[in-house]
Amino acid sequence: MKTALLPISFRLLGFYTEFQVSSMPSPTTPFSTNRNQLLGMFLALLILDATLILLTVDLWAIGRILFTAVIMFFTLQGYKWAKWLLVGILALSAVALVGLLLALGSELSAIVAAGSVVMAVFCCVIIGYLAGNSNLKKHFAWKRQQKT
User: So what's the pLDDT on residue 90?
Assistant: First the structure.
């Protein structure tokens, strides 16, 4: 690994000091903005899901959130199996939310119904982002290459 050394002078506590700073390799990949966007979507989905769980007082769903969060972690690490498992989980969640709205639409509060619609749409957006973003695919390929 080749690093460039840059001399920098500055005044520190009244004394001039010269030292060299090596330019460290960046811990980010060229496609880290796509990963960060995906991470933001994951966090927003988990927060929305947790909020809906608190509103409906369905504490058993906390296990589903934790399981999904673990799969999201492995997806961000570049595992293909985790990516496709997450796509399946999100698709199932979207279908279940739409089914819930169709079956119990009149019995749900307006906030829970609106939150369910938003979450179903957001699940579909994340599925599209995971399946269709070429830069994200390159990032995951880079992550897998780093492991070998």
Answer: 93
